[in-house]
Amino acid sequence: MGAVTLGPDTGPGPGPDLDTGTSPVVRGGLATRLRHPVVGFLVRRTAAGIVTLWIVSILIFAATNILPGNVAELVLGRNASPARVHALSARLGYDRSPVERYLSWLGGILHGDFGHSAVAVALAQPNTSISSTLADPLWNSLVLALISTVLLIPITLLLGLIAGLRARRTADHIISTPALVLGGLPEFVTGTLLIYVFFSALNLLPPVSTLRPGQSPFSHASGLVLPVMTLLAVALGAGIRQVRAGVIEVLQQDYVQFARLNGVPQRRILVRYVLRNAMAPSVQIIAQNIQYLLGGIIVVESVFAYPGIGLYLVNAVLARDTAKVEAAAIILAALYTLVNIAADLIVVYLVPKLRTANS
To answer: What fold, for 130-357?
Structure first.
């Protein structure tokens, strides 16, 4: 509870404030909580994330609008009449200046409106809103990423811990060598190998997703297995090596040796000292792996024809539908930023001295 400063006319006790009717003790407690180093760090980190997203939005918009060629002409084709091209350009807002279009696009995003699909408008489809077409692909990708993340974190920590405790022994080689090899393979190579093994050779799992629009990803759970295995195979390598290195370093510290000499049980040493201190530097690596999952989803979804945001982005690029490309890119950038903020908060929680440094 923060200390209360008494005014010149205030009695010895903390009386109610005459203007607001709120006790200074309550206000002081709220102010103290707001001045907490973790809260301050969260506010600063969130502000930095917002600024980063704003800069990324400018780059995304510029990348999709500075390229030569008229979007309306690209969508309608070279044989389209000038009148149709002009009408579609006006419908999509390309008759305005780039600054006006960017501000309109950014304002729409802040209200959950990602604009209209140029292809849908050109084909006179009844539903041209991009927001309505994003929900299913985004949910499908989030399910794929969440399953991969839920499996990635414990497997990374467990295998990294075992490799670190058995450094330069048989168990370490059994874990580290495959992790190093799989981590060096591109996603499409790993995915192709898994398709060959589990479909062509064993006929156990489908080679591509059979998920249709509107269906839950869990209605075809078998179609999730190979994409998840591909993402994990590539992401585990760096995480396992980082946790292993952290465990080896912590085991060599004096306080761990002192705890052993004083008869502290091995399990308590592992949980209280080794894991906690080894996890702090590993969190950023794991966060980078999670971010990789978001980026790797683009390739993996294309390999397995999985209808997520990655395949949505690839199809939008092939169709030259710039509004869809912008929407998918800014969503992926926002997810990257959220993962970064969460990782930084976990590190601050695990390392107490960082709370003081960020106060």
So the answer is: MetI-like fold (1.10.3720)
